[in-house]
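Q: Please design a sequence for this.
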């Protein structure tokens, strides 16, 4: 049974096709969508995609590529290259709209792409990110012309770098006119398959749709058979085919093509059905098919060289295989199998010797062409290495694999470079004289593998590889080489949170280099040491080493290192009081990175300048700087853009523009990681705490806690310590609040000169100790009061030292601490609070100023000075309204309730009157019975115990408790007890 093999009529799949078309429609509306299309082998995923392409017509640009199974390892970016290659081949004018930097990045994976300037030879953690950003820019620019569908098929075979790009793209999509559709075989997946965790991650995204393609039912199979046969099949034929194929469209078609319409001995598997049809081809066609099975997709000249078939004979053989629907002729003049399953069946049928000979012949043919290839092709290099490996030629496989590692690295396919480097390391001991036949030695290969693992994210493996490399180098004979390995190892140890060990390793490396040596190695090492010193708060050491690094970078004429060092020096000078010089250094770093088109350091230089200006109290200038950086950083560089938005959010919060602060936190990236995740959690936690959403604050801060615990940076330790202490204080868990403060200070004081962060945490500690001391006096616990006073004195010593070494921010924290100290001693002084408010006003921090005025109102009220108390309370309440701080507004209102203050809201509404005089000794108007209940509340009695003691029902006791809380203006029994102790209302007359 020959002629047509597949149905010309699209059968079923209406719901699934509708999902794909809906994704395209959303792309038109700038609502990017991700579709995960899964199904068993042969179930019709490719047919469905082809139908989508036909129906999309001119509505959308379809970029379609597929991953391929590769016995010697995955091919870097194979599906992306396949999807984008037509743009290069057709010289699509949209490519000319890309920036020069993006063109250079894309040229690494798309040979033949016209570009200006040298290729990007920087291999650091941002190399792959720069490539991904360039791909995102390309898709964005294409989207300006019309909606785009990027279709990546057979993702179960995709290489690690492609999987990383899919994850990046899915997280980065905002308003692009793009539909990303990926297909995969569900029967290939298992728990440990590399694609399984990625699918789980992608499914959690809001924009993701998962479509699972099921086999045909009987009606759909009947419809397909009718179209293929040209007449309606008999019910018996449908039933027989359905029983054998279980509705799998490809299996049903192959049964028909093999002449097995359900009768006779059934094939044991789908592969057997394939082979029955292959065996009916002429011998030359079978030989060509076997070559293509080993090569996956080959042009006619390659097939001729590998098989030795004469060209005319080969023409006929290929024509026969295409007519029998075994092979397809692609648009790139290469022949491939109609379905991957068919290729797998032919490949598995090869004898071991036959298979090895084919791979060896293919490797030789492709290698002879590699020298004339247009640019370095990671795909070609990996293919050659895979053929040699499959052929069992280990020396050639080692040589070709090392070439493939370098090509993958040049394409920023670092995950694939790491995998192939590991394969080369496995081959090394099996090949005699490996070092003589390769352009690198064993140490260089170990180092190359370690670098690839670092960039790919596996620092633990890189640590092991570098330790192994160090064992093979004589430090006395090759000090520079040994120092270079130590420098790399130090960075890895720092990233693995082994800070002390990292510094020791870096210092060992520096000691091995002559002090007068002019080299990029020494400059880079000094620059890194300076940055680490800064991050740990050792500012004076950072300044000394930074100046040495800057001199070394200038001598070595390494502009990239110079830009990094200027960034560090600028921050260091600012925190040490050299404001103008520090700002000038950071501005130079910004301009240098702009000229180098180094978006990474450009964005971070802006963020660091804004952060430093904020630290010295110039918050408004800091916000303008962050916004300037945002404007200069293209939004497609999402990670850098998000970091600057986080910085802007923090600054807007400090300046009291909480609406802008919240706006810069949206939309939240799907899966922020590392320092970005810590920063975001702290930002969202602080905003929630300011508003009064303690549940959200608790969720964010507790999620940040283990991440900060693994960090040694005071910027995170201090922020978390201050925020978490305030949260625990508001939750009335004062012991936990104290513990948080002590832990944060212990971690920072051992390693930092960062007085601003110490001041912030010490001020939070003073507030907590004031609450504890006040509570102790309420309970007449003299020992606890003395302990709290001793602790707050220590906090004041820290604040005094910070104010002396710091600037206006530290001075403001010091004055706030002094006011808390007076409150702790039971001598709450409104004048101290007003000084603190003025200090905060001077540096435009309205939130802290309002808190100080609330405390001033409280202190005035305790002294009986009702007029200034009402004035301060009204000012604090107005600011709370303007900020949107519900908790602060609630505290001020509760104070007005307790003290019978006349408080007017921002809209003129009277919140609390002063019409009725308070009873002597009781400003709350409690009845004698309520005084009895309050006394029992102060002793910690439950409603049942209150009812039993006062001979009333438990329900009646509950009603009394609710009324008392309302009259006192508090929200909990604990607060009521504290007020009762402080106002001596726990004594029943």
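A: Design:
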């Amino acid at each position: 049974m020959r002629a047509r093999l597949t149905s010309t009529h699209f059968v079923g799949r209406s719901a699934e096709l509708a999902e794909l078309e809906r994704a395209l429609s959303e792309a038109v509306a700038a609502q990017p969508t991700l579709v995960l299309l899964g199904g068993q082998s042969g179930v019709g995923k490719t047919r469905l995609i082809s139908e989508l392409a036909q129906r999309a017509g001119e509505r959308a640009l379809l970029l379609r590529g597929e991953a391929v199974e590769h016995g010697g390892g995955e091919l870097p970016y194979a599906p992306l290259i396949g999807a984008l290659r037509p743009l290069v081949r057709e010289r699509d004018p949209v490519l000319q709209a890309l920036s020069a930097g993006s063109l250079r990045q894309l040229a690494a994976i798309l040979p033949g792409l016209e570009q200006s300037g040298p290729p990007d030879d920087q291999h650091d953690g941002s190399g792959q990110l720069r490539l991904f950003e360039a791909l995102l820019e390309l898709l964005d620019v294409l989207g300006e012309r019309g909606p785009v569908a990027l279709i990546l098929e057979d993702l179960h075979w995709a290489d690690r770098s492609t999987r990383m790009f899919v994850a990046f793209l899915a997280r980065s999509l905002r308003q692009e006119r793009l539909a990303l559709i990926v297909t995969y075989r569900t029967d290939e997946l298992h728990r440990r398959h590399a694609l399984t965790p990625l699918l789980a991650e992608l499914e959690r995204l809001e924009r993701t749709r998962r479509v699972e393609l099921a086999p045909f039912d009987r009606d759909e199979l009947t419809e397909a058979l009718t179209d293929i046969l040209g007449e309606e099949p008999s019910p018996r034929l449908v039933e027989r085919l359905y029983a054998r194929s279980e509705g799998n469209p490809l299996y049903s078609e192959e049964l028909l093509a093999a002449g097995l319409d359900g009768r006779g001995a059934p094939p044991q598997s789908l592969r057997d059905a394939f082979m029955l049809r292959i065996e009916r081809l002429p011998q030359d066609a079978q030989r060509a098919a076997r070559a293509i099975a080993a090569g996956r997709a080959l042009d006619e000249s390659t097939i001729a060289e590998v098989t030795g078939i004469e060209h005319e004979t080969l023409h006929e053989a290929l024509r026969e295989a295409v007519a029998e629907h075994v092979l397809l002729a692609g648009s790139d003049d290469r022949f491939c199998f109609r379905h991957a399953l068919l290729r797998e069946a032919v490949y598995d049928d090869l004898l071991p010797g036959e298979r090895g000979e084919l791979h060896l012949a293919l490797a030789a043919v492709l290698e002879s062409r590699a020298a004339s290839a247009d640019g370095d092709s990671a795909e070609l290099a990996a293919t050659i290495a895979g053929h040699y490996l499959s052929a069992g030629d280990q020396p050639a496989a080692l040589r070709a694999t090392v070439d493939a590692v370098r090509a993958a690295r040049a394409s920023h396919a670092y995950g694939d470079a790491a995998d192939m480097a590991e394969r080369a390391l496995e081959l090394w001991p099996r090949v005699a004289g490996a070092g003589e036949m390769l352009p690198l030695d064993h140490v260089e290969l170990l180092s190359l593998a370690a670098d690839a693992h670092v960039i790919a994210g596996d620092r633990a493996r890189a640590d092991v590889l570098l330790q192994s490399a160090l064992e093979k180098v004589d430090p006395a004979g090759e000090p520079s080489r040994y120092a270079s390995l130590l420098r790399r190892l130090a960075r890895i140890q720092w990233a693995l949170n082994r800070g002390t060990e990292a510094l020791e390793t870096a210092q060992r490396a520096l000691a091995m280099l002559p002090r007068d040596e002019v080299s990029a190695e020494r400059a880079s090492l000094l620059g890194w040491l300076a940055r680490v010193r800064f991050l740990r708060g050792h500012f004076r050491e950072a300044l000394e080493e930074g100046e040495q690094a800057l001199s070394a970078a200038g001598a070595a004429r390494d502009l990239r290192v110079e830009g990094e060092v200027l960034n560090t020096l600028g921050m260091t000078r600012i925190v040490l009081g050299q404001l103008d010089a520090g700002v000038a250094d950071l501005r130079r770093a910004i301009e240098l990175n702009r000229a180098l088109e180094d978006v990474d350091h450009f964005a971070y230089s802006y963020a660091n300048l804004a952060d430093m200006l904020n630290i010295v109290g110039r918050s408004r200038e800091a916000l303008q700087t962050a916004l300037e950086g945002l404007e200069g950083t293209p939004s497609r560089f999402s990670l850098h853009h998000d970091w600057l938005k986080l910085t802007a959010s923090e600054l807007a919060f400090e300046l009291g523009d909480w609406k802008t602060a919240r706006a810069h936190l949206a939309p939240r990236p799907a899966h922020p990681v590392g320092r970005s995740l810590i920063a975001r959690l702290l930002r969202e936690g602080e905003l929630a705490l300011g508003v009064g959403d303690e549940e959200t604050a608790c969720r964010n801060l507790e999620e940040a806690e283990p991440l900060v615990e693994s960090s040694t940076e005071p910027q995170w330790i201090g922020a978390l310590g201050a925020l978490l202490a305030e949260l625990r204080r508001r939750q009335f868990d004062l012991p936990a609040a104290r513990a948080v403060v002590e832990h944060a200070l212990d971690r920072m004081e051992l390693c930092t000169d960062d007085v601003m962060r110490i001041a912030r945490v010490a001020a939070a500690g003073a507030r907590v100790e004031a609450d504890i001391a006040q509570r102790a006096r309420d309970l007449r616990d003299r020992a606890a009061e003395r302990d709290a006073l001793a602790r707050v004195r220590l906090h004041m010593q820290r604040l005094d030292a910070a104010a002396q070494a710091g600037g206006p921010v530290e001075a403001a924290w010091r004055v706030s601490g002094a006011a808390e100290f007076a409150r702790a001693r039971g001598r709450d002084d409104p004048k101290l609070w007003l000084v603190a408010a003025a200090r905060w006003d001077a540096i435009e921090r309205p939130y802290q100023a309002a808190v100080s005025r609330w405390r001033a109102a409280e202190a005035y009220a305790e002294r009986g000075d009702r007029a200034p108390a009402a004035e301060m309370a009204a000012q604090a309440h107005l600011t709370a309204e303007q900020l949107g701080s519900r908790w602060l507004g609630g505290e001020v209102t509760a104070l007005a309730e307790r003290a019978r203050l006349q408080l007017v809201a921002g809209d003129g509404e009277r919140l609390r009157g002063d019409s009725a005089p308070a009873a002597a000794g009781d400003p709350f108007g409690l009845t004698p019975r309520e005084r009895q209940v309050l006394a029992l509340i102060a002793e910690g009695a439950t409603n049942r115990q209150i009812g039993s003691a006062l001979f009333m029902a438990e329900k009646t006791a509950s009603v009394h408790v609710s009324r008392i809380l309302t009259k006192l203006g508090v929200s909990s029994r604990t607060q009521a007890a504290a007020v009762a102790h402080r106002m001596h209302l726990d004594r029943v007359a």
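Q: Thanks. Anything notable?
A: The chain is about 65% helix and 5% strand. The beta strands are 33-39, 61-66, 148-153, 178-185, 208-213, 298-299, 327-329, 334-337, 903-904, 910-912.
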